[in-house]
Specification:
The structure is a homodimer of 204-residue chains. Chain A has 204 residues and is mainly alpha-helical. Chain A is 55% helix and 6% strand. In chain A, strand 1 and strand 2 form a beta hairpin. In chain A, helix 2 (22-30) packs across helix 3 (41-53) and helix 6 (112-143) packs antiparallel against helix 7 (150-180). The radius of gyration of chain A is 23 Å and the shape is elongated. The interface between A and B is large, with 104 and 104 residues. Chain A binds a DNA duplex (28 and 28 nucleotides) through helix 3.
DNA sequence: ATTTGCATGTAAAATGTTACATGATTGC
DNA sequence: GCAATCATGTAACATTTTACATGCAAAT
């Protein structure tokens, strides 16, 4: 998985929004970047410790109100610098692993109904995503209109909207194409053909 | 990474194209599904051994021509059944981890030039992908027009084309938006604002 | 009372990439 | 002769998820 652990940078980014605990970060991730970037506690807590050791963030144990112990982390100047440096660096292309396409690539061995069902399920997910994005957009405009980060958040949201819309169009085109194709059926047999070698490359 | 190791199914899929070695599979992956599904030797060889042990494929050691030893694997009926079963099963949504969007999400803390540079680099990659896909498409039509799998391969290629085209449009829109925004600059300071909690969710 | 949420963390397992070891053969 | 490619495999490392352990506080 390449030499790249971006969790520290995600943490630094969220800490620019204000001091907070690991738990807070996790919650924030879930309600903001989850659609294109997620983090689990198993990554978060070790990374917080490392960032503290490296002096990019400061930890402040709090047991004040209610007596509930919390570790509150704040970003410092070195942390802000590390964040900015990362933002200027070349960005790794996102790794893609689209199981749907792998299934469809071998779709010749399935009956039409199976292929259709897979595409339809994917399409429904895309539609649900779009509905969710619309709700998020409305909520952002309602509750966050003053925030300086809002334009950037909206740009990432727009990415999701365009992406999903394009995939829905692909689903519709694909369904139409599938209807024109002979219905295979998954009967074994036919004997693997021998002209497989070289040049079959395909998209994404 | 969730209970899902799809490598065996990828292998089974490729073996439907004919008997071949692990090395052959790796080559085929590179020139066909690499854009949406890749495999490394570190996954391939252990998975081939496991599939053989489980009786879904058969291994045949060859030392024939030239004396070069090769292990040729063939899918059998149980393997074909396992493949078809997987193709009918619900498909996990692809995991997304888009570093570009994470950077842009915190773009408020960068100067405009940095944000622009990141988007432009991404756009260039999308354009290169599209050019590559066009070459693949031409090659497929030229060399593979007889193959029964071709329509399905073209569908996965179309996915990549639509995806990249949509992302390019997003890049253009984003660049226009960035030009309207005040140029931040990465100076520390400003003090993290305190109204971060709840409702910031965004797209993809 | 009991569930839900707050809160921190660790351990183990799954998954995946990269680098290495090894050696044959083919084309220049 | 030498580089490239064929060919198989392992080991180490990196990354990430899931499950668990632990316990307090607030709301129903």
């Amino acid at each position: 998985m390449a030499a790249s652990n971006r969790t520290p940078f995600a943490i630094l980014g969220f800490l620019t929004l204000g001091p907070m605990s690991g738990y807070d970060i996790k919650k924030l991730v879930e309600e903001s970047t989850e659609n294109f970037w997620s983090e689990s506690f198993g990554q978060l807590y070790p990374a917080l410790r490392k960032l503290t050791e490296d002096g990019l963030i400061a930890k402040q144990a709090t047991a004040s109100e209610g007596g509930r112990p919390r570790n509150i982390y704040s970003i410092n100047d070195r942390g802000r610098e590390a964040l900015a440096t990362w933002q200027r660096e070349p960005t790794a292309p996102p790794p893609v692993r689209i199981e749907l396409l792998l299934k469809l690539f071998f779709g010749e061995h399935c009956d039409r109904a199976t292929n259709r069902k897979q595409i339809l399920a994917y399409r429904e997910q895309m539609v649900r995503d779009l509905e969710r994005y619309r709700a998020i957009r409305e909520r952002l405009h309602r509750d966050r209109s003053e925030n300086a980060g809002l334009p950037y958040w909206l740009l990432t949201l727009r990415f999701g909207e365009r992406d999903r819309a394009a995939h829905i169009e692909w689903c519709d085109e694909t369904l139409a194409v599938l209807d024109e194709l002979p219905d295979g059926g998954s009967e074994a047999g036919e004997e693997g053909n021998p002209q497989w070698q070289a040049s079959t490359q395909t998209g994404t």
